[in-house]
Amino acid sequence: MCGIFGYLGKKDNAMEVVVKGLQKLEYRGYDSWGVTSDLDGELFVEKKVGKVSEVKLEDFRDKKTSIAMGHTRWATHGGVTDANAHPHFDTERKIAVVHNGIIENFQELKEELGKENFVSDTDTEVIAHLIAKYRKDNPFKEAVLKAVKKLKGRFAIVVLNVGENYLIAARRGSPLIVGIGDGEYFLASDIPAFLEYTQDVNYLDDNEMVVVDGGVEFLNLETGEPIKKRLVNIDWQAESAEKGEYDHFMLKEIMEQKETILRAINQDEDDIMHVAQKIRDSRGCFLSGCGTAGKMCMAGEYFFSMIAHRHVNYAPSSEFKIYHHFLRPESLLVVISQSGETADVLEAMNVARSKGAKVLSLVNVEGSTIARQSDFSLHIKAGPEKAVASTKASTSQMALLLLIATAMIGELQEGRRILVDVASKINDILNPRFLTYIKSVAEKIKDHENAYIIGKAENYPMALEAAIKIQEVSYVHAQGFAAGELKHGPIALVTEGTPCISLVANDEVRQDVINNTIELKARGAYIIGISPENDDVFDEWIKVPDVGVASPLVNIIPIQLLAYYIAVLRGLDPDMPRNLAKSVTVK
Ligand code: F6R
User: 295 C-alpha vs ligand 1 centroid, how far in Å?
Assistant: First the structure.
């Protein structure tokens, strides 16, 4: 949610480097962008509504400077206007601030600082004014330290003061990573922004600040005391964060599922056994995540029940607080998150920890806040996921959950065998013929405003996930239901030609789902069956391999493609759906 990027170093085209970095962070917010620099003692600013991906890099090439910072926005406070785009400044336009997060006490601070001096409706502008206030009697670093102490809420900020050749960044609650290059430094909301320059990073933790000049100095925000940080090497390749031959990241990431399942299950056996043991030993185990990750937790609930005969409770992280009565030191919370930065998940972790419960996590971004704040974390190894709609991360999360479930009953090798088979079958189906067929189905349903998806047992969470995928990228009103629930109300929504997708596995509930599909068909629904076997009730049959209990992993893939093609055929950009951002770091 909002991308920030700062550069200081040996390159003399810092503004171009920053704009390029922002283009890689655009998935975090894309309603407006801005960049600023100290050009020979003068503040240069360009900020406007629109997409940073449409900015020409060469427009910034001749602006010779080695220090710059910028922002790509996902509006929270204040509408989408040029004035509200970041950076924001103090009255004298000497101090510039870019910010990701929400300052909860901004109104109070604005009153205090004289609201007539403000030129935007954002919460961020108070930070620049506050720093300027303290800068009058303090060096720059102390002024920033004093200012952030007054802030309530969540923030990652980068600050530049004209005439002082350094950048200061601080964090509480929103991600900020420091890339350490050869004689150059990067401050960014996410690693892909600077991956082409360096793979060495320091993660800024909550209540930490970094001063970047000829080197980096880390400080505690509360005490101002220096702190030592560990340099981490990231094993992502720069190309893995690029679109390559694909028109969109979403399609590229769907296709990467040919390899990502195998990477996900390539885990140290001791680590998997450790997690399996912790779940078995716990007295009250909860699975929690948000959105798609939450639906994968739900799939995990089924895997643990069907494979390990162990009951765990799924709760969306935004609802987890309600469960605090049931938490004790023997309880266990397992959280799932692609980004590792989702605010609701972090809050759920705090609730669990406040009751003495342990927290395990499955994350895609190594070193992310959720990974670092967990008692133990498994890395799902899906590689950078840039499209807003989560695809490859979700199947990797399910693969790992299934593996853990088998480890819980001493069948880890069997779990691996099942998943290696799934990986190879996914590799087979993701072929041009399959894609062309799914596109033809998308063509048939793209103009409908409603679509319903049904599934039962382990495919019920997939029906819910299917709805999220279709809603978020194609803006079609899609809803997922447990197949047996239709007759209790939702079937009233079905009219002649309504597209209904039926997820049917070769399992013990197959006939039930077919029966529910027949009920839909009787009301005129146009049935798209996703199943290893055809059935008379299907108007379209999307054939998927039979992989037994792992069926959700293959059933969700045609849905991802369907959502993608519906969006493209409706003339939408699936990588940048309206109103959404990749990493939701606000509550
Ligand atoms: C939907 C989607 C979101 C995320 C959710 C959690 O396609 O991507 O629903 O799953 O915002 O994000 P993470 O997994 O980063 O915690």
Answer: 10
